[in-house]
Amino acid sequence: xxxxxxxxxxxxxxxxxxxxxxxxxxxxxxxxxxxxxxxxxxxxxxxxxxxxxxxxxxxxxxxxxxxxxxxxxxxxxxxxxxxxxxxxxxxxxxxxxxxxxxxxxxxxxxxxxxxxxxxxxxxxxxxxxxxxxxxxxxxxxxxxxxxxxxxxxxxxxxxxxxxxxxxxxxxxxxxxxxxxxxxxxxxxxxxxxxxxxxxxxxxxxxxxxxxxxxxxxxxxxxxxxxxxxxxxxxxxxxxxxxxxxxxxxxxxxxxxxxxxxxxxxxxxxxxxxxxxxxxxxxxxxxxxxxxxxxxxxxxxxxxxxxxxxxxxxxxxxxxxxxxxxxxxxxxxxxxxxxxxxxxxxxxxxxxxxxxxxxxxxxxxxxxxxxxxxxxxxxxxxxxxxxxxxxxxxxxxxxx
Length: 399
What we know:
- With about 400 residues, the protein is mainly alpha-helical.
- The chain is about 80% helix and about 0% strand.
- The protein starts with a helix and ends in a 6-residue tail after the last helix.
């Protein structure tokens, strides 16, 4: 299963690269398309991110359930093909409304993370699930290293160049997948597709009914809402606070991606061995709380760049949470579980960009009574602390 595993990791990496490629140029792209201020561009950036996430919320469980019924291969390959076309449309978009339409389609095609995670669950022994989910996180981190750096460099050729590169990369992965991607869903584990159950709310109810899962879903949701403060405001925050260029923003995101790849690819296994999944989650959330507190008031861009790798330590939380819940879920519902997690993550992406960018815009306006670009990090801190307390008070999940 070596080649298929590499293919799955490549999908996750390309997804991250696609996001990272465009992040450094999004502020300037929206300003150019609309001819508006940075504050207004931040609001529209939140709208675009929310539209993308809303589609992931709706279609994450649908694609997860479809993959339980018809297989992981078909769902992944069709999504990649449409994603490549979507990036081409984005590259030629001349209005904010076409950009919005592109983000809607992109959100649907990018809702395959649940399918990729279900594939990884299919091929993993219970004791290896946390480490293998960590590999998915590491692949995302590698993509975040390459994407922003390449996107920052490509910005020299215009704000459209990153979209063309993303389209080419996705098309390449699609072609490779046609040859190396096997099917891991068997007749024994196949579950008939039910559109009613594929509804995000009904899927959530089905998974939440499993013993001990409900509080973990709340923890996962609160964690996701708070952690999404980074992609929601980072480009705007660093432009306003430090005066960073697209190239510098790309470099900073690349540094974060390196840190996340190291943590999830190399540290998650020893962290689980030393602390257990529960301990890894506690320490990971603790580091996130500390990071938010520091970034909220940091004014030196050089120190911020040096501090970024430390913030990545909190990345051990997600794979440990995923593994804990996956072990307590039957094999026939792995796709459904990952679809629910993808939906919760997407719901957080609906809420977080709108809230975080609105808070950011409010605290940088010329008439604001308190100038504080880092205010969204304080809100993220409060949400992370709520999730931390809930997790500490919840009983261990029994597989």
